[in-house]
TrEMBL record:
MF (Gene Ontology): 2-C-methyl-D-erythritol 2,4-cyclodiphosphate synthase activity; metal ion binding
UniProt function note: Involved in the biosynthesis of isopentenyl diphosphate (IPP) and dimethylallyl diphosphate (DMAPP), two major building blocks of isoprenoid compounds. Catalyzes the conversion of 4-diphosphocytidyl-2-C-methyl-D-erythritol 2-phosphate (CDP-ME2P) to 2-C-methyl-D-erythritol 2,4-cyclodiphosphate (ME-CPP) with a corresponding release of cytidine 5-monophosphate (CMP).
Binding-site residues for a divalent metal cation, renumbered to this chain: D11, H13, H45
Entry EC number(s): 4.6.1.12
Source organism: Snodgrassella alvi
Essential cofactor(s): a divalent metal cation
Identification of the protein by name: 2-C-methyl-D-erythritol 2,4-cyclodiphosphate synthase
Residues reported to bind 4-CDP-2-C-methyl-D-erythritol 2-phosphate: D11, V12, H13, H37, S38, D59, I60, G61, R145
Residue stretches making up the 2-C-methyl-D-erythritol 2,4-cyclodiphosphate synthase domain: 4-157
Site (Transition state stabilizer): H37, T136
Amino acid sequence: MKSIRIGQGYDVHQLVAGRPLILGGVCIPFDKGLLGHSDADALLHAITDALLGAAALGDIGKLYPDTAAVNKDADSRELLRGAYAQVQAAGWKVINVDSTVIAQQPKLRPYIDQMRQNIAAALNLPVDAVNIKGKTNEKLGYLGRQEAIEAQAVVLLTAV
Ligand SMILES: Nc1ccn([C@@H]2O[C@H](COP(=O)(O)O)[C@@H](O)[C@H]2O)c(=O)n1
Ligand SMILES: C[C@@]1(CO)OP(=O)(O)OP(=O)(O)OC[C@H]1O
């Protein structure tokens, strides 16, 4: 049997006024957005870390330091594609992705299908190999107070 690997990823970014809210490569209408060096797409960052973790290639900050001017305002779809190129060069391909975005507001459901399509395109996967779940934080803590949005992801790789 071909070997398989699992990886998990996590990210959180602060929600602030004056920034666009970008999740899964979708710009979501909202009165606040995520703060970061890049476009701060917490979902794509969590998936990128899950990919790199499964292939034992470190983490997103190792590939794309937040001190590098080239990464300023980067489109996280490009970061995800670049990380996946390294994962593929190491002899792996993705089987599937599952993820959770914890956002008290806004409701993500209307945007989930477009996010799945963006992630599937970046990873050369069928859309039904990518799942995204939205959760509130039941108004608890900093997520519940809409001070941040968090994302968690797992990916499964198989040897090519
Ligand atoms: N930002 C969010 C949060 C939740 N959803 C959807 O609502 C359902 C219920 O959420 P709970 O946190 O109350 O369990 C959840 O299963 C999602 O379908 C959402 O779309 N966006
Ligand atoms: C993506 C990078 C690089 O621009 O910066 P941020 O957008 O701040 O995101 P984070 O998830 O904190 O870490 C990875 C970074 O190195």
